[in-house]
What does this fold into?
Amino acid sequence: MSLSRLTSWCFHHRRIVVPLWIVALVAVSVISAVGGADSRDNFALPGTSSQRAYELLGERFPKDAGDSAQVVLKSASDVTDAASKAAFEKLLGGLGTLDHVTGVDGPYATDDQHRISADRKIAYADVHFDTRAAEVPVSIAKKLISDVKAANADGLQFEATGGPLEKAEQPAFGVAEIIGLLAAIVILLIAFGSLLAMGLPIITALFGIGIGISLIGLIGHLMDVPSFAPQVASMIGIGVGIDYALLIVTRFRDGLHRGSTPEQAMKVAASTAGRAVMFAGTVVVISLLGLLLMNFAIIRGVAISASAAVLVTMFASITLLPALLGFAGHNIDRFRIPGTHRVTDGQRSLSYRWSRVVQHRPWPAALLGALVLIVLALPLVGMRLGSADQGNNPEEFTSRRAYDLLADGFGPGFNGPILVVADLAGSRDASVTDKLVKIFNQTEGVAQAFLAARNDAGDAAIITVIPKTAPQDKATDELVKRLRNVVVPGVVAGDGAQVYVGGITASFIDFAGKIASRLPIFIGGVIVLSFLLLMVVFRSLLVPLKAAIMNLLSIGAAYGVIVAVFQWGWLGSLFGVDRTGPIESWVPMMMFAVLFGLSMDYEVFLLSRIREEYLRTGDNAMAVADGLARTARVITAAAAIMIAVFFSFVLGDIRVLKLLGLGLSTAVLVDATIVRMVLVPATMELLGDANWWLPRVLQRRLPHFEVEHEDERELASSS
It folds into this structure.
């Protein structure tokens, strides 16, 4: 069934389509709530030293193969007094009975005095799980946190932290999404001037994202889905869902204003905006699925979840929305907001006049626009990929408070111990572990190193190394690399022992290194794909080349902004960033995949109008100005909605979502202003007719593909 027939069927059978969507939303939501899988933050990296360390733990130390959480006590008097000790031991006794907990090591045993700070104000206990942090059920993590919170009393502060508990503190659909939706409502009211017209994109997006988010729980049965995947999917799904519906509703209203019947207006909207939505949504999904080539479990879960959200919202735009438009009909402009009016899109518009100003001075405009983007992108050269530690969590989180207590009592590096796991099966020196401990304690950057455990067979040992610096500090990264490349080889060379440097901190370092090595390949592949797609659509070499360069500049500017704010701390207080840290390793990759799809959307929508005018008049300058004027209102509204939705996540609590939200909103803002309003008219004026040059051999061999159906005028004139 063609798109036109599908939308027409939904338009005529709206009394069936809308109830079907309601049933689908309720059914999928209920099934997900009852049978959805728990999230799992799986950072497994086959072939790395940190992964081999975990595997060796599982083989030789089965009781210690799981991850641990820490329960921290701060006493106003002394953690060893009778009241403090009784309260702590009572709490730990209860925690030891929880499912998946294999044991609890408290601070009061004779050989465990290292769990008490020098001033005797702070103590901690290790709660050991039988599995990795990603596998610990959220319900167990929440129960542990609840029990710890309930133990607080006068003069006694209990907190909990650790990898197994992180996902229990991740927020559900909430404040950020609501703020984004409210901002989108305001923008749509300004764009349409009608309550009914505003409501249709919002309803469509909510249905799409509601089903999309519910599907994530079911996807969790097929693969590991990280705890932050629903927020990322909702951020992207809400933005594109409202945007896609906005394009279709705008075309539908334009058809009605030209005198078409609702059915004819729907046909025009389907053959133009509907095709553009299908193209844009498909490109976004393809770019997100391209992340699967990176072969990381945690990225795979995010990519599939976000793709599902985009697919459902796109399908809602071409099925549910036509049905809703069928109910609205000519009444779509009812309930108008006083003081609003349609913005002129012709030669009297501000966009047309601005384009002519830029075209009269193309060189200064092009150089100034490029200079602004380059300056914004400069911090990119200092980007450090990594993973922020729990010291960046909001102070309302128990993990943040526990992190601060442990740092105060035992030093900042205590929150990110390095686990050195030694396979001694082939060792010829029984004292090799003692030598390792000795040399570790003499190594720059190490606060303390000690032999933590030796297995019963005597063929494996665990050495704990406490850095002097926090887990996210660059100095800690350098320490891990120094231990691996210099210190350990210097001790075990020729001995036969196999020593692996692991732990959560080392795992994140390996993860960042793997992504950094593959990121250029991914970006190069995306750029080549965008070039080929645009070359086929616009039958030009220079237009896609120019678009690729501008996309790189705008995304580079977004990268530069997040580095300046989150890594360097510039203007951090404005965005709720009170501690600097590295850029989350997977964020630049995810940003590029999402922004590639979104920029293709705006690029195709704008350039298709420009090319249409050029083919009609043969005047490149007028085609650029007219194309910009015709698309300015809807692209501006669409971009404003994207910016509002993405930026709303900056107002939330989770650092990684703040980072992603600021990066995406910055890139869309740059693309909708500097790129579209300055660089596009300036560069297209400078290139002139060369914009549309294509070698004859490619003209004959390239397939013809048009995003907007060429029979739009015929459909419209049939009214």
Q: What stands out?
A: Residues 710-719 have pLDDT under 50 and may be disordered. The CA atoms of residues 268 and 716 lie 7 Å apart. The two ends are 24 Å apart (CA to CA).
